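Section 3.1: Structural characterization of target chains.
Under the original work plan, the team committed to producing a structural model for every single-chain target entering the pipeline before any wet-lab resources were allocated. The record below documents one such target. The sequence was received from the expression subgroup and is listed exactly as submitted; it comprises 204 residues.
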Amino acid sequence: MIQRLTQKPQLGPADHGRRMSYDEFMTSAYEDGYRYELIDGELIVSPAPNMGHMLVMRWLNKALEAYADSHPEVINLVAVTGRVIVPARERVTVPEPDLAVYHDFPDDLTEGDLDWRRFNPLVVVEILSSDNADKDEVRNVDLYFQVPSIKEYWLFDPRESSQRPSLRVHRRHGKQWRIIDIAPGGTYTTRLLPGFELVVEGVW
C-alpha cells in the first residue's frame, strides 16, 4: 500500500492573530509574499517589503558585512531577517528585525545548536514601510529595549527617498533609550563599532 505524504497547510493573512506556541511558529509552513512574527503568542502577518526597503537593507547589509570582515573581534555575524526572543513576557514574543548584528557568535555550532533562543544580538535594524510603520516606531521600540543584549536599535526611514533615507538611532542609556537623529546625507558613528562610519546617502 502506498502511503501519500500530506503537506502542511500554509498559514497566511487569514491567520493573523492566530494563537501559537514557539514550536508551532517555527515549524509551520507559510504563504510567500508576507512577513510573519509571533508577538505575545499571536501570529502577526505583514505585507512583504517593497523594493525601496530591499535596496536600503542590501546597502546596509553590505556595509555591516564589510565591517564584520575587518573587525571580527567586534561583530562576527550579520543576520538578515533574524529572530529575537524577548524575555520575561507572559506569552512568547519573537519580533523579526530586518538585520540583527551579533558579537562573539560561536563558529563551532552543531545542527542541534541552531536555535534563535540561544543567541542575543548587539544591534537590531528595522526599515520603515508605509503600511505598517507603527510596528517599528512604537511596538518594537518597547520590545527591543526589553532585550538586555541590544545596545542600539537603528530605524531607517526611506519613505521620502530610498536613496537618501533618514536614520533614528535608539541607544541604550540607563533605563531608557537615548534618541539620535541623522538626517539624509549625514554620517553616523558609534563607540559600539569602533572605526565604523555610515554615510546615509547614495544607497543604490
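The CA atoms of residues 10 and 98 lie 23 Å apart.
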